Amino acid sequence: MIHPSYVELMKVVNEGVEIGEEPVVNSRYSLVIAAAKRARQIIAGDEPMADKVTCPKPLSIAVEELYEGKVKIIPESQSEEE
């Protein structure tokens, strides 16, 4: 079994969202896109932010960063406003 599961990741990423608010992530696709973008940043030379790096692969590091809450996913609607 893959750890963390996508269900666990979605809970962590959507943590702090009030009832009735739009969740930050509402599909596996959103998690995949976010992890892939962060993995590309790591490949390009960014330092990993995860406390516990169990695998040297960039995608595994990116998933661990999401799970630890080190990387935040900004909804597209918010990134356009800034």
Automatic annotation (TrEMBL):
The catalysed reaction is:
RNA(n) + a ribonucleoside 5'-triphosphate = RNA(n+1) + diphosphate
Protein family (similarity comment): Belongs to the RNA polymerase subunit omega family.
List the molecular function annotations (GO) for this entry: DNA binding; DNA-directed RNA polymerase activity
BP term (GO), one: DNA-templated transcription
Q: Which GO terms describe its cellular component?
A: DNA-directed RNA polymerase complex
Any idea which UniProt keywords this protein has?
DNA-directed RNA polymerase, Nucleotidyltransferase, Transcription, Transferase
Protein name in the entry: DNA-directed RNA polymerase subunit omega
Return the broad EC class.
transferase
Q: What is its EC number?
A: 2.7.7.6
**Secretion signal, residue range per the UniProt entry:** none
Q: How does it assemble?
A: The RNAP catalytic core consists of 2 alpha, 1 beta, 1 beta' and 1 omega subunit. When a sigma factor is associated with the core the holoenzyme is formed, which can initiate transcription.
**Primary role:** Promotes RNA polymerase assembly. Latches the N- and C-terminal regions of the beta' subunit thereby facilitating its interaction with the beta and alpha subunits.
Under the heading SMART domains, the entry gives: RNA_pol_Rpb6
Q: Could you confirm whether the keyword Nucleotidyltransferase appears in this record?
A: yes
